[in-house]
Inverse folding.
């Protein structure tokens, strides 16, 4: 029923700027790391909505011809990571429909946990679904609502959905933004000067999107909050009672860009602190600290500064790998990793290396990288991971495989060390992870490291089963 359960995405909304589509495009460009399979923008010129979405990267999809066909002063945009397949374009966001609340478009980041249940109920009541994304459920709930205004109908819809969502919604004269009551996924608010006078608003998954378009970060959309900008100005309301916060710690460990401020905290600060604490907890008798680029760079800088071991970029990443490349017909061992990373032999030869990465998922890439460093001449390879072992899948919007494929769910650290062929392996403790993100008030979700989920997971088994159909 549902095409893909785990879904990573970036969202943006612009209000009140004469070049809304261009700004949404630029914002999506800086959120590209959050999803590389499809992207879409929907704009409004005050009377009509215009939409374009396609498979591929933001820069390939939004040519100047395409952007010229997206007029108006407000826009929402989305970039999505999804499984390939026939239904992939159908599931690209935003979703735009005409319903009894007018013309409306919606996009979101996160996972709606009770989507199967809601969809079944809606189908029983006559709804016809075109795609298999959980976002469409929100639109049907909107259409079914007996409330007369869009904001009231959206409020009613949001109270029925459970799970993680940072949502952007566009109607002809307004944008509405909402974040789930636990605040799993980030969503920041910024403002910008409008050429010719006035203030425009921008909302985005990460603040790196604001920097590119000259907007200023104001604050986050609060968990359980709905914000609306229309002709009457900006309004804020709490649509749901306060719940304990469950901000995704993996945004700070890996997912967000280090130049973003996420959940009010600079990601670069967390990452370097992760590395410093890792050096204290898991020291190594070694000569160099080498990051796995790009995910391990900031933590390796922290590890190096704390341990006093020199930092060397001895693995070089090719940033220009396109979607297609010609693979030699004779299989070359570990070809995929070699295409992406190449070791600097003269830096590694005879050296005892601390290799720093953010996480081990299945263990397959880490094993290839350790092997690559050793083959380049390293005398010893000590792998250090800047978070605890990933033992449980995420149900709130991070693409992790199921439990059976997570190496740390069924192997201890020594077994993983043997599998990845490292001389030693060290993970950061949960306590240090908390410290690195300054979580003194217990506001983060650590479920992927603890298996302790902050919400009821009723219906999740069904959702997982349906995602595999
Ligand atoms: P593996 O070999 O499966 O253990 O992969 C580990 C690598 O995957 C690390 O370099 C991580 O930076 C990266 N990684 C971790 N989580 C994710 C994710 N959710 N999506 C994409 N890459 C990830």
């Amino acid at each position: 029923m549902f095409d893909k359960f785990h879904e990573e995405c970036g969202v943006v909304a612009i209000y009140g700027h004469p070049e809304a589509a261009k700004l949404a495009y630029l914002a999506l460009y800086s959120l590209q790391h959050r999803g590389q399979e499809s992207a879409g923008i929907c704009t409004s010129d005050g009377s009509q909505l215009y939409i374009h979405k396609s498979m591929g990267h933001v820069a390939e999809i939004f040519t100047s011809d395409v952007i010229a066909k997206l007029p108006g002063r407000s826009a929402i945009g989305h970039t999505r990571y999804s499984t390939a397949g026939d239904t992939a374009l159908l599931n690209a966001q935003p979703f735009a429909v005409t319903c009894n609340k007018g013309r409306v478009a919606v996009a979101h980041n996160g996972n709606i946990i009770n989507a199967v249940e809601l969809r079944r109920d809606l189908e029983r009541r006559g709804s016809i679904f075109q795609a298999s994304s959980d976002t469409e459920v929100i639109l049907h709930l909107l259409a079914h609502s007996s409330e007369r205004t869009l904001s009231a109908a959206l409020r009613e819809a949001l109270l029925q959905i459970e799970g993680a969502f940072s949502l952007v919604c566009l109607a002809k004269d307004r944008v509405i933004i909402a974040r789930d009551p636990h605040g799993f996924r980030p969503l920041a608010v910024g403002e910008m000067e409008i050429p010719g006078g006035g203030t425009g608003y921008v909302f985005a998954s990460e603040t790196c999107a604001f920097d590119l378009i000259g907007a200023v970060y104001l604050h986050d959309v609060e968990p359980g909050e709905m914000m609306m900008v229309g002709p009457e100005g900006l309004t804020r309301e709490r649509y749901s009672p306060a719940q304990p916060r469950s901000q995704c710690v993996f945004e700070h460990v890996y997912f967000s860009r280090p130049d973003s401020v996420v959940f009010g905290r600079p990601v670069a600060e967390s990452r370097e602190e992760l590395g410093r604490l890792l050096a204290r907890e898991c020291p190594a008798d070694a000569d160099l600290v080498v990051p796995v680029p790009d995910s391990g760079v900031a933590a390796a800088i922290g590890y190096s500064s704390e341990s006093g071991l020199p930092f060397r970029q001895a693995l070089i990443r090719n940033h220009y790998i396109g979607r297609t490349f010609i693979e030699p017909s004779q299989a070359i061992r570990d070809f995929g990793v070699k295409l992406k990373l190449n070791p600097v032999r003269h830096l590694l030869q005879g050296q005892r290396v601390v290799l720093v990465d953010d996480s081990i998922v299945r263990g397959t890439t880490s094993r290839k990288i350790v092997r690559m460093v050793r083959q380049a001449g390293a005398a010893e390879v000590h792998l250090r991971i800047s978070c605890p072992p990933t033992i449980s899948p995420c149900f709130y919007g991070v693409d992790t495989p199921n439990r059976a494929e997570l190496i740390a769910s069924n192997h201890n650290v020594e077994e993983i060390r043997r599998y990845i062929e490292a001389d030693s392996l060290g993970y950061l403790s949960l306590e240090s992870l908390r410290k690195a993100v300054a979580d003194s008030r217990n506001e983060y979700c650590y479920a992927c490291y603890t298996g302790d989920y902050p919400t009821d997971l009723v219906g999740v088994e069904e959702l997982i089963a349906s995602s595999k159909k």
Observations:
- The pocket of adenosine monophosphate is lined by residues 254, 292, 295, 357-366, 398-400 (CB under 6 Å).
